[in-house]
Design goal:
This protein is an alpha+beta fold. The chain contains 6 helices and 18 strands. Strands 1, 2, 3, 4, 5, 6, 7, 10, 11, 13 and 16 form an 11-stranded mixed sheet that branches. Strands 8-18-17-14-15 form a 5-stranded mixed sheet, with no helix packed on it. A hairpin with a 5-residue loop joins β2 and β3. 45% of the residues are buried. The model has no long low-confidence stretch (mean pLDDT 94).
């Protein structure tokens, strides 16, 4: 199943997306009186199973052409947890950009957080922040959403704690990252987290999900990989994090980006105002965002 947040006539609502992507069935019409997908996630596995049994589209379904799709979790309650350099080829290009030696080993996962005051809609705009950013970059990533409280979860049990998956563009200001010698500020500017177009529930894919992941800039293919190449997989990441911290329902974990980001080219190919960035993950969908300069 694919779940979405949408806006129609000034009202934001959660819904179920049809297989062809052309219709939305409001969750309220299926008996779930919840204001957003976060509230639905909190209802737990029983609600997800009940929805699966009710997933019928009737004449109250809405055409997607009549609504505006929003990020599935527009205002995350906590910072997004991100994986750094979690594809080997991206680790190599990152080291090359920073003029660092890379020995081809990554013994421990690299975690950082990304503040998201409001996630950008699937077809919304990325603010270039051109007054402070001269090296705007894109990163197509698979993001997972935790479905129930996770603490001390064994790797073999991780699947049961996943609610679903979405597409996330971890937009990054490379000059700010370099200047401050850490990633938080350079990845947390307003408008730096396009997300969507939906949440594909965990039963949408075999476990662990091995999905093609790509990005395009102005129609040109830049990243082309699959999530089977993650250095640290979902089972490892959720289990490791849950050993020392409680992961609450609705927690978003973004699993890192493959090679092909702007900084990986020689010379680098960063984004400019007017560029259109598309991030695609097979089985979930695509997000397409235009870079603008709001100065």
């Amino acid at each position: 199943m694919k779940l979405v947040m949408y806006e129609a006539q000034g009202q934001r609502s959660p819904g179920l997306l049809s297989e062809d992507g052309h219709q939305i069935m409001p969750l309220a019409a299926l008996g779930f009186e919840v204001p957003d997908l976060m509230a639905f996630i909190r209802l737990g596995d029983a609600a997800l199973a009940e929805l699966s049994g009710k997933a019928v589209f009737t004449d109250v379904a809405i055409s997607t052409s009549d609504v505006t799709l929003l990020a599935p979790i527009p205002n995350p309650e906590q910072d997004v947890i991100c994986l750094g350099i979690n594809y080997m080829a991206h680790a190599a290009e990152s080291a090359r950009y920073k003029k660092e030696a890379f020995g081809g080993e990554r013994p421990y996962a690299v975690y950082f957080s990304k503040r998201v005051n409001e996630a950008v809609a699937p077809y919304g705009q990325i603010d270039a922040h051109a007054d402070m950013v001269d090296s705007l970059d894109y990163e197509a990533e698979l993001a997972l959403i935790i479905g129930k409280e996770a603490r001390h979860v064994a790797e073999k049990d991780v699947k049961d704690y996943i609610f679903g998956y979405t597409v996330l563009n971890d937009v990054s200001a490379r000059n700010i990252q370099t200047r401050h010698k850490q990633w938080y500020f350079g990845k947390s500017l307003d408008g730096f987290t396009p997300m969507g177009p939906c949440i594909a529930t965990r039963d949408s894919f075999a476990w662990p999900p091995v999905l093609g992941i790509r990005s395009y800039v102005n129609g040109e293919l830049r990243q082309n990989s699959d999530t089977g190449l993650l250095i640290f997989g979902i089972d490892h990441v959720v289990s490791e994090l849950s050993r020392g911290m409680t992961l609450r329902p609705g927690t978003i974990i973004s699993m890192g980006t493959p090679a092909g980001v702007g900084m990986g080219f020689v010379p680098p190919r960063f984004l400019r105002s007017g560029d259109v960035v598309e991030c695609v993950i097979d089985g979930i969908g695509s997000i397409r965002n235009t870079v603008i300069d709001e100065r």
